[in-house]
Design a protein that fits this description.
The structure is a single chain. This protein is of the alpha+beta class. The chain is 30% helix and 39% strand. It has a seven-stranded antiparallel β-sheet with strand order 1-7-6-5-4-3-2. It starts with a strand and ends with a helix. The relative contact order is 0.26.
Amino acid sequence: MNTTFFAEKEIEVSSFSAWTALTEMSNWLTKLHSISMIDYDKKHSFFVEGREYKVLTPEKITMTSQLVKINEKQMTVTIQAHFFVLHSQLVCKVIPLNATKCLITRKQEYLGLVGKIFATLFKKREGNETNEYLMEWEKYAISSLLNDC
């Protein structure tokens, strides 16, 4: 009974650059229209397995999120989030295509009946967020690459 939002995008950067941009997601997440702020213990690196953080939405909802699994070899991160009885899981992945091109993917899954109801009510918002996420991820990867030159 889960509801899934999925998108993928082929981008003109190396898989290493795309993965690096994903590991620095704390720098670009707030560019999404659906995220007002992220809050975490800034004394330590953000992108570590087990990291808990809060995501504040424009609707003033605070989602508690956690980086539950990071697989550097497969360039995949799994994030779980919840707000009371609403639970979601997000999986982001980088797939190498060649030396200068890769595919980035984002799969957001809302779990159970509450997730299905939420996803039905906010289908357009969640679909837009999925695409915007890939766009901001790509922009950050490209700008980081240009800054390295």
